[in-house]
Amino acid sequence: MIYMESKYSIYFVATPIGNLEDMTLRAINVLKNVDVIACEDTRDSMKLLNHFEIKNKLISYHKFNEEKRSEEIIEKAKEGVTFAIITDQGMPGISDPGHILIKRCQENNISYTVLPGASSIITALVASGLANDRFSYYGFVPKKAKNIEILMKELEKEEKTSILLDTPYKLKNTISYMKKYFPKRKLSIARELTKLYEEIKTFTIEDITDDVITLKGEFVLILEGAQITKKDSLDNYKDEIKEELENGSSTKDIVKSIRKKTDFSKNEIYNYVLEIQNKNL
After folding, report:
1. Whole-prediction pTM value?
2. Taking each helix axis from N to C terminus, what angle separates 251-259 and 238-246, rounded to the nearest 10 degrees?
3. Residue 157 in contact with residue 233, Cβ under 8 Å?
4. Comparing 268 with 135, which gets the higher pLDDT?
């Protein structure tokens, strides 16, 4: 038997990113039983609700009224009104409205919960075949050139697999920047996830040409992490080693200390310390 959870005032509900069969039974039940559903686009959300024969009150909740609407929802929740928060697709609060309201719930001691469900970023990450034990999410690629440059410089040094979102209007430009900064890295491009024309392709960035990309739908980009050389990694300890040398620590003690923090061999660390010593003579 499916029942309505009664201990929460506000439910943040993940909705399908394409295929409506990815809707959970729990999400359907919550949407049927809350007092109000707050959504990004009432017309878009009606398609989802009609599919599951959900008849409920809808109000708009989008990036242009998020601050004001969050305050209104909190005040109504204090009076006992229950809400479900949904976006057009996916999880509220990740590159979509929801984060501000969760903060307001915490500030006002309003009970809330998050219902898991479909996620384009996790779906694309797993499907990419790239390393997913550690990853960073960067959201949408910015529009202004100077901000794209800042992002690319960050990604150039990012060792973890990176997840980005992009549109068909900017994708070619984004890839041109990637060719400039890290042409040898792998990039997985996913579009129309869970839909009829789903595409997931992985390339070496320098090999990507205009004809291999279909510029339709929203894109999830999975970028291979930077390969940092051992020399670069030891450079992270340069200041510490210099300080230890200035304090009179022996080479043996310095090697022993750094060895505990990295997987370099004793000989590699020893030679690096000697290199620093010789430069300081």
Report:
1. 0.78
2. 150
3. no
4. 135
